[in-house]
Design brief:
- This protein is 37% helix and 14% strand.
- The protein is an alpha/beta fold and 372 residues long.
- It has a 7-stranded mixed β-sheet, with helices on both faces.
- Strand 12 and strand 13 form a beta hairpin.
- The two termini are 35 Å apart.
- The model has no long low-confidence stretch (mean pLDDT 96).
């Protein structure tokens, strides 16, 4: 797809140079249209539109499976990343002394569910350390010795460091520990093959790099792992035969067992449309373009005396670049840029910039020219 056609899908490009995709991404036209049509159907058809809504929800599972390289029966629809991670953390049969490997300075969604197990289940949380904004495989290898599970973010929300998931999966296979991935800051533009990488479970929200609406999310759980993770919430939707309102046939045989009840039909329609767009573009093109824009920004900012939160290279770079400079107030800069219709974020004293597939090199250069 030509970049001009991609930009035409994102109305926000007419108003901002928008680099806040690591916070809340803008909806493409297709997603806004799908949401509007579902709302119109709810208003004018009521329950008589339900079959079409259900088909759109099934379509979202299909698009997710295509993006992750799994079967659609291994996909559950959630509200957000946290709900998916909590389903895994709360469902496993933990033993006192079990070890979870993670990162204390990760986004709280991927720390709180595992830390909470310490007091309640006697699980130990073993934290990795960032080295110059990055994490190293040798550190992970040591930490996973004797661990039961590694809970890692595909992309760090602040530094932008991106794991090589195939290499991570090999470490976890060798150490005999489960691999759970918070994919919210990478899923969409960057490739993920859960089977070849040995990922046992993965969770992501729709409202960041998947350019979907808030209140939507996805959970992948490997079919072989499902018996070890009973759902911590059970409702009519969790049960086999739910389509005919049965509740006496046990849990649903697919990942729908983690869907307690009625889903957000409008949100699912929109996220499905967004993911169809991303799948049609493909992660090979998207990752190359996003990484290229982010690298252009990183190099230009370094030339202007800015420090990067993490060094980048082709294999570990993502769409997130955080930068700062002595004497430059990040909060003030973010406000000044917004006044010039350039949208970035302040995070922990850093200026965080996150370009997506609809951004351009010209917009990056505009941002660079405006930096103090």
């Amino acid at each position: 797809m030509e970049r001009s056609k991609i930009r035409a899908e994102f109305p926000i490009t007419g108003r901002y140079a928008y680099f806040n995709n690591a916070a809340i991404a803008p909806l493409p036209r297709a997603a806004a249209k799908a949401m509007s049509e579902q709302a119109d159907s709810a208003a004018t058809e009521g329950v008589h539109g339900y079959a079409r809504w259900a088909n759109e929800i099934d379509g979202l599972r299909v698009e997710t499976a295509a993006m992750l390289g799994c079967d659609e029966t291994e996909v559950a629809i959630t509200k957000n990343t946290s709900e998916g991670l909590c389903a895994v953390a709360g469902g496993l049969d933990w033993r006192p002394g079990d070890v979870v490997v993670g990162l204390e300075t990760d986004f709280p969604a991927n720390v709180v569910p595992w830390r909470e197990l310490q007091g309640r289940r006697g699980v130990r949380f073993r934290s990795l350390e960032l080295r110059n904004g990055r994490m190293e495989l040798e550190d992970l290898d040591r930490a996973c010795r004797g661990a039961r599970l590694a809970a890692l973010s595909y992309v760090h929300f602040l530094t932008g460091f991106r794991w090589d998931l195939a290499a991570v999966g090999e470490v976890c296979r060798r150490r005999g520990c489960l691999l759970v991935v918070d994919a919210v800051q990478g899923m969409g533009p960057f490739p993920i093959d859960v089977k070849s990488c040995g990922i046992h479970a993965l969770s992501a929200s729709g409202h960041k790099w998947l350019v979907g609406p808030e209140g939507t999310g996805l959970l992948y759980i490997d079919r072989d792992l499902m018996p070890q993770i009973p759902p911590i919430e059970r409702g009519w939707g969790s049960m086999a035969g739910s389509e005919s309102f049965r509740h006496d046939l046990g849990l649903h045989p697919s990942a729908r067992r983690y869907e307690c009840g009625t889903l957000n039909a409008a949100g699912c329609a929109a996220l499905g449309a967004s993911m169809r767009l991303l799948n049609s573009i493909g992660s090979a093109w998207a990752s190359r373009e996003v990484n290229g824009l982010a690298s252009r920004l990183a190099e230009g900012a370094a030339e202007r005396g800015y420090r990067l939160a993490a060094e980048r290279d082709k294999s570990t770079g993502s769409g997130i670049v955080s930068l700062r400079k002595p004497g430059v107030d990040a909060t003030a800069v973010v406000g000044e840029l917004l006044g010039r219709r350039v949208s970035v974020a302040e995070r922990m004293g850093w200026i965080r910039v996150a370009p997506h597939i609809y951004n351009t090199a010209e917009e990056i250069d505009r941002l660079l020219a405006l930096l103090p």
